What does this fold into?
Amino acid sequence: MAMSRSNDNDVDSNQDAPAFRHALDSSRLGRRHDSLESYTAAVGRGRQLHNEDIPKEFSLVTILRRNEDKQPGNIDNGRSSLSILIGKKLRGFGAGFYNCFGGKLEKDLGEQKQPAMGAVRETKEETNISVPLSTMEESFVGTIRFTFDDWQENRAMKVHLFCVFVSLSADETCSAPTHNANANANTINIDPDQIRGCDEIEPIWVHNCYDLPLKQMFADDSIWLPMLLQHHESNIGANMKFNAWFHFHKGGAKTNSIKHYYIQRHDQDKFNDTPKQSEKFTLEKKLFHALHDNHIHNPSIKEFKESWNFANSVRSFLKEGKRMTHVLDVAGGHGALAALFLLLVPECESATVIDPAFVKGEVGVKDAWSDYWGDKSLKYRHECLRTGLRKELDKILQNNNQNISPTNVLVVACHACQHLTDETLEIASDYGVNIAVMPCCQKDHKGSWKGLSKSLGNKSSNSQGTASLSFGTIMDLLTAGKMMAWNTGLQANVEYVVKMKLMDSAITLQNRIIMCKSMHRKDDNCNDKEREAAHHRLALAYRRAHCVNKGEKNRIVRWTSVFNESLDTLLPGLAGFCIGVACCHMLHLHRK
It folds into this structure.
């Protein structure tokens, strides 16, 4: 075992050196992004995202102590008030590099669920320093995520970062946290003689943190580690919190070059030298970040936005009454839409995805979001629509113990092709449940509607200057009209209130959501009477338009008789008059 004491194994220090004079050249530190969305878009551009690119998880512990002869914040002659314990890797990943202490989290030991346990274990193994678990948990800084262009050779990593302060004193009880004005909270008292490494790493003190050998460390250390040290240089007892994302060029440790990075700070941002309030994420951003943090690329960004907008539109329309207690997502694939109803609708108890295909993203959605919906249930039924939807509806509605009404159930289908939309509406309306669909892929195979679409488009463009009415729009209007028909839902004794809403076209062009609210029909006898009355009014209107009553007919007969008698009397005289006019005309011509 190698042991680091006093200056025996210290990295050379130059007191006249400027701050962090050994940092890597900026050309190897990549492009900094101002938002996670910008970083995500840049990393995803030109790079195929894979579900296999799921990160391995590690712990990383930064061990600091305050120099007794230096006051915090007093940086004279390039000398820092902080010392840092780093290790030189002797073998394995990053051999020959200096690094902080840590290692892979052991799933079997429960360390992935409680990363501080792994940090305590690795710190003990690599430095022989014992840190109480509670102290390690309170020293948590944030997570650092790494991805690589050559993801096949260099798998993504998620690192849980901790920052622990120690005080060197052989007279104090080792590993006992202490509190004083010149120390950070929960500083650990240790005997300097107890520090020793292992066959994998050799601990070394750098008494002036500005002399860190950053050129012999991983490239990301030149970005986040100076930021952390500068924070503690001038802030005693104030914990620092941040998350960071780094994407490396091909070659891993050999090239040691960053391509893109983003750092999200949760305290005063001294990295920018400007005050910054802690970011407050909306639920939408939290869910998106949960997917990204776990390197889940199914659903995609576009699919996530579609599902979010779809779920909120339907939720707003069906907000009255418990209309979304049970949600069935037809052809839901990864299940993001079904999961969002669990998250956004308090009364939603269960959501089931009905899809014959096995989609890798379904595991990712559960892993990323399950903490948000608690005890609620997200299930997957790998079966076709025709049988799977009916079986699920039968199972829900025939459960007498829960006394579930069809109006408590919602069937959704986002971006279902036209025939799938039609079948979903037909089956769901037979059961009388609430329905919401966003159709796509409408096609006029025979060209029967091409002329009408063009004609309606021309009229529209002449009057308002808009584009032609697409065939998809016509089909969606017809579908909505069909759901409004009086006999739709008759079998289940319900009728539908139908509304169509447009999603932002920047998200998707197939953006028409057809929402159908199931309503109990009135008493059957009352409906029969209303229909009979309507038929009677229609019959009267028809007779008024096409029939002549008896009084009018008699008047027409009398007028016709008088006209005929007058015509018989006038015809002989009229004939003589015409002959006389003709003779006079001929005589006039003869005289000429």
